[in-house]
């Protein structure tokens, strides 16, 4: 891949040496029209600007993922994130819960669908580049996702915060997905990645996409590819909006470290896991980290 620090040109992925230590990258040259990215940001802004009463029509229920609302309260000790979210299943299409898809703005559904369809092509290229970098047979990673992997969208709204030293927009975490693709706010930064024992700001690059790998990809790659710890800072003066797309193996698919990545020098690091989301929730209830519990 073509590299400029942590910037890659996705469509040149097979003309250059791929990243062997991919955790997160800012992707340019991905082939998705800038006009579509602008439209996606715009419908997100329009939705979050709706009156509270209108947005409450899409409120998620307790213990639900789909729908609109603030951070879940999981314990009295938890400090809430300074944000609201709209979470939606996009693929498979028959799993869409359209009662949570906003009718206002009227083109919201079409724009989100078009964006994710194009993004699936970008993710396919990324998988192939990752497989090539490890001398794997094409399809080694994608086969663990299944024919109809689960793709979710999360629209994030971070309002201005008068005390950014007291609260985070999104607390430090790793993603439980296979891969995550983020369209950042076109003006306001705030995303940070924890690397080399320090927090690093992810720059805002117009019409770029931030790609990071999730916990499930770390398991599949037997620890070669990492699921990075990341967080979002709040801003005193400006609101921030972003759109994250999570690509996750089907719940009934069992993931495991690829056999080609296990040998005497690199022994197997993780157990087989089926329905990682449920496994993650079990671990969370016990106060444990799923990725650590999956280690052999």
From TrEMBL:
Transmembrane segments: none annotated. Residues 149-249 form the Fe2OG dioxygenase domain. Keywords: Iron, Metal-binding, Oxidoreductase, Vitamin C. It comes from the Eukaryota. SUPFAM superfamilies: Clavaminate synthase-like (SSF51197). It holds the Pfam family DIOX_N. InterPro entries: DIOX_N, IPNS-like_FE2OG_OXY, IPNS-like_sf, Oxoglu/Fe-dep_dioxygenase_dom, Plant_2OG-oxidoreductases. The keyword NAD does not apply. GO terms for molecular function: L-ascorbic acid binding; metal ion binding; oxidoreductase activity. Belongs to the iron/ascorbate-dependent oxidoreductase family. This is Fe2OG dioxygenase domain-containing protein. It comes from Quercus rubra (Northern red oak).
